[in-house]
Amino acid sequence: MKIVISPLQKETATFVSDFLSAPMEFHPDIEISFDFGYGSQYDGSAFSLHLTDKEVLPILNLIKKHASPNLKSHLQSLNLCPALLNHIL
């Protein structure tokens, strides 16, 4: 979440995480976007979250728990950081 500190001037802002409001130095550590398309009950909705490494762990664990074999195979074929692969495979 971006919090504007000095409005109506040259903008000064800081980023904080959306779960725990932890400060982030220059930009969001992690940005996750949700875009709900046609056929979804949330059709046309979109939002994003700014998270820290610690805050994203429950989401990574959810992916690990529910990922299909096809998704796991696809993720292995991508050039992902080994630490990330350890959390999602």
Morphology call = extended
The helix/strand series, from N terminus to C terminus, equals: EEEEEHHH
Please give the order of strands in the largest beta sheet: 1-2-3
Task: Write down the overall mean pLDDT.
Answer: 90
pLDDT under 50 segments (min length 5)?
Answer: none
**Total number of helices:** 3
Helix content: 25-40%
The largest sheet is: 3 strands, antiparallel
Into which percentage range does the β-strand content fall?
15-25%
Number of strands: 5
Derived from helix and strand composition plus strand pairing, the structural class reads: alpha+beta
Distance between the termini: 29 Å
Q: Roughly how many Å is the radius of gyration?
A: 16 Å
* Domain unit count: 2
Descriptive notes:
- The protein is an alpha+beta fold.
- It folds into two domains: 51 residues, no CATH class; 34 residues, no CATH class.
- The protein has three helices and five strands, in the order βββββααα.
- The strands form two sheets. The protein has a three-stranded antiparallel β-sheet, with no helix packed on it. A two-stranded antiparallel ribbon has the order 4-5.
- It is extended, with a radius of gyration of 16 Å.
